[in-house]
Design a protein that fits this description.
The chain is mainly alpha-helical and 122 residues long. The chain contains 3 helices and no strands.
Length: 122
Amino acid sequence: MWPVTIFLMIVVGFYWLAACATVWFWMNALFSLCRLHFVRASIWLSLGSAMFIWWDGRHSMDEFMSVYAVFIGIGVLATFVRWRKKQQAMQAIPTMPTWTPPKTPANDNQPPMFSLHAKSEG
């Protein structure tokens, strides 16, 4: 009886972890999308879709490789658009003016005179 129990626990554990992984992939895809990490979201979406197709069992993984490539390509394009908009916004910010040194006084050939003795007024 113990070998059957151990075998069933392993099988149920495998399917339980696969179900948890499927949910984890989809949730990571949503969270990455909310944080505007489009490439990560597309990769998580591809993994979640692959797990869903594996659960469904009617299709093979090879049929959807082009769909995964489209997901990741859209993620890359969205990331590029976000980066380009950020670059344009950074270029629209005016740059700081350059520092100009102060002008030298007209009597620049005379050294300043300092007295080491304090004058006492009395």
